What we know:
The complex is a heterodimer of chains A (311) and B (318). Chain A is mostly helical and 311 residues long. In chain A, 78% of the residues lie in helices and 1% in strands. In chain A, strands 1-2 form a two-stranded antiparallel ribbon. Chain B has 14 helices and no strands. Chain B is globular, with a radius of gyration of 24 Å. The chains are: A mainly alpha (311), B mainly alpha (318).
Amino acid sequence: MTTTLRSGADAGVARPVPxxxxxRRDDRRVASLFIAPVLVGFVVFYLYxxxxxxxxxFTDYSLLGEPEFIGLQNxxxxxxxxxxxxxxxxxxxxxxxxxxxQTALALMLAALMHRLTRSVVLRTxxxxxxxxxxxxxxxxxxxxxxxxxGFVNHVITAVGLPAVGFFTNPAFSxxxxxxxxxxxxxxxxxxxxxxxxxxIPHDVYESASLDGANEFRLFFGITLPLLxxxxxxxxxxxxxxxxxxxxxxxxxTRGGPVNATRVIYYYIYQQAFNYFNMGYAAxxxxxxVVILGVLTAVQLRLxxxxxxxxx
Amino acid sequence: xxxxxxxxxxxxxxxxxxEAPPVRRGRRPFSAGRLIGWIVLVAAxxxxxxxxxxxxxxxxxxxxxxxxxxxxLFPGNxxxxxxxxxxxxxxxxxxxxAGGSGASINFLLYLWNSIVYCxxxxxxxxxxxxxxxxxxxxxxxxxxxxxxxxFIAALMVPGIFTLLPNFVxxxxxxxxxxxxxxxxxxxxxxxxxxxxxRQFFLSIPVDVEEAALLDxxxxxxxxxxxxLPMSRGPLITIGLITVVWAWKDFLWPLLIGRDESVxxxxxxxGVYLQQxxxxxxxxxxxxxxxxxxxxxxxILLVFLGRRIVESLNxxxxx
Lengths: 311, 318
């Protein structure tokens, strides 16, 4: 249906209606006016900085003075930089734990809503954590999980266990941040899945239940396979989003304890604005672009595979 | 694809009461599975709300009671003094007496800065992207497909990559600690808003616009008088999403707007946490500040919650 609408729209402009065609010449003038603001915004704040960032990655640039060309030196240094690999490892640990748990929980919530209720109040409430700034989310959980005074540790000590240093113990800090962001983003992800589930024709479920399929069969036999295209898209977005985690870390642990939570965004930030190695930071940013590009490409291929399988 | 698949304006969508309630039809008999399902949903609801309750409870607790009350579900002596001190209503002496550091904190100003920041970005970006999106969807001009794909490629670039050079650009322009420098990169466009609105304009039928063209109206006039008013729903939706994103912004305003005069809520909260003098942060003040950053979101939800929730399926993917 969408495709017909879209091609209809295109054809509408192109259709050789004389009056429209005569105006076509004018389009160039109107269009340039309409496009001017976005074009300026794009060139000044997207294109120009991209080129500049690429250039810096081949230079030694300390934010003062002029960038000095040093060839591939930044890249070779990054490759040998243990701290870079550490931060990539930390990021990957976070991304995987966050995305897996979040996707599973969101799927479950979405399926339950889909089968049980259409409540807008429920959905709106589940969305609140996503609408709140990550800084606020970080602060709230920093307080809830505080080692001495946090509510969660009151509960833990009440049942006789020792208090847990959620943010201060290197072994727990990344899982903790991961859980915090699961809390923040699961509702949003669930609503995306839920919207996808609503597009599945209802009679598929009815005929299946008439055949005696129970809810689990319905979920694994109908919902999950038919949701795959949307799942792939949501996964791409979650993955790319998770790679860019910064706010929560910046508020709760600032990369600590002993770099246990220094994710790649935070490391780039430190190199650029604490140590003023702009060229080095730019080189790492470029590597991040490449990694994310590859990941997206792989995932979109998977998505295409799943689509063809469906149709 | 799924971006355009549900372009009907929000009010028509999903939860209109006329829609057949898929499950409830002929109420099923009670089953243990359904009960467990409901228990999980209610648990999710409680888990979602409880941290906010705890934030509010702490914000209402006098600073002297924070340790004593840290395990109890209700504030022993509820008070609004924490809000008064983070809003800057107290003198430094009063502030210290109430458990603050006496340092000036002015969340009233930060709140105002955030509102200005979000409003500017929300309004201008939506307007400009509507114009641009309309041009890409409806107008013919050389190179439009190429240009559009270049714009869309920018969707893939992680923020930090352009953030570093943009910081230097704003610095070189002398716009650090300046509201203009803070809003500049998002004021004119984001690839997402442009993409979203172009897809929207592509999906609505051209008949009305065509009729107006045949009547001799110019393309620009058709846009302002017909296309734009017809698109109120999606424009509000994308505007809201833009405002919410701007409200959540942290890293950029942290870099550009450190100065108190332009500090936003998120930056204010971050700086306040860092400035906490003791090993034990000023939790009551921080939670009062956090509450202030949540309230506008709740107000937005009360008035526009349904629209936001229902827009999620066709904004689809982020």
